[in-house]
Specification:
Layout: E1 13-24, E2 34-44, H1 45-50, E3 85-89, H2 107-117, E4 126-130, H3 149-160, E5 175-177, H4 180-183, H5 185-192, H6 198-226, H7 231-250, H8 252-262, E6 266-268, E7 271-272, H9 274-294, H10 306-323, H11 326-335, H12 341-351, H13 357-362, H14 366-389, E8 396-398, H15 402-415, H16 432-435
Parallel strand pairs: 1-3, 3-4, 4-8
Antiparallel strand pairs: 1-2, 5-6, 6-7
Helix pairs in contact: 5-8, 6-7, 6-12, 8-9, 9-10, 10-14, 11-12, 11-14
Length: 436
Amino acid sequence: MEGDALNVSPHSVVIVGLDVVVGSSGASGPENKAEFERRHFVCSGAEYLAGNVASRKEITPASAFSAENVGLFKHLGNGDGPDKVYFVLYPTRTYSTSEALFSDIAPEDRKLIRKIKRRYSDRAAVQCFKVPLSQADVFERMSGYLGSEEELQQFRAQKIAPPPAPEPVGGRFPIAFDVSVPAKIIPILKSCITKPNKQDWFYVYTKSLGINLAIKLAFAVFGVLKGTLPIYRAVITTIWYQSQDVFFTVFGQTYMKFLGKMSRMLRIGRGYFGDLVFTYCQFSCFEFINRLILGPVGENPLVYTWAGVGLILLNNLQGMVAGGAVTPAVVRVRRAGVVSHKTMMHIYQLCGLTFHFGLFASFGYQTIFAILMASLMVCSWGTLLTFSIFFKDPDFVEAKAESTVERLDALVGRWCSLDASDRPRVRVGEAVADAA
């Protein structure tokens, strides 16, 4: 392999990860944005070298080694020969961990790469490349891919933006805090805003206004009947809890995307835990307000006493340690490509039921609360650490060679519809205004 060019042999296999337009949001006006799906196209090394493909053939983890595709891999050994599997990933719009329009890799890419790698004992049998955004001019010619002038300008601005600074290298366990993430929290949040869909509203009616409301009312009514909770506090507390519940259910997609982008705020070693820090702060503040509204009840003393403050801090710590990892764990599972976005949202909504564990502490059932938190901690942290440690990204090489990009763009042109207007190509270093 010379530089960043693919050293493809005729019997190699080339798999290209690319977003395709599958529809629109259905809204009118500028809000009618295109919707994308990550697809993977496969061809033989001979087809890649010839710059032509007989047909558009897609590959998925389920069909990777099926009868229709097994012939493509029959010449491949374990990496010691010239025939290899070449993964080439174009930037994606289906998943992002920053406020940028594009990111380098999608969860579906990780899932398929793992499936292919498991077949070969030698890591060299599978080589992974990324087409940098600066070379992804083909996006401007893909029909419907950049649906508005605003997206076009955002794409061109990101193309010529300087690459991110290399991660700091410190001791054995380096820790880095990226202050630019909290500084841009408003733009990050705006970039994550997603219109609620039918699934979100389904959980509002069944979970938030159904199961969750029934559980909260049960705690409140039981406290009133015991004489330990004034009725006006019970009403205010229920309204406060329900407001949070409905909001985070309706905007669950926005919240999950936002946490994914906040993860880069804090790096410990090679792992990113900014989303965990953010949820810790969020849960701490919300539970403090919850307890202030509720007042002294059950085994819980008055919040204004030292004992009350200490108990709140202890319960917050228990809840944060155990429950704070739940949502970041779900984000990690999605990032690894183990579940789809739709499945992730189902898991997120169902995990919301664990928030009811905090009601035991709020209403004075401290022993039950401690047992529940210990069980939740084992499950949430076990999942988070498993997907942070054992689901690492493979090593990638940037495919920047002109000949490589031209061959790939030719294949993309045959797999996807290109815009007949053929917008001018913009190279790094050219002014954005010159490309308009």
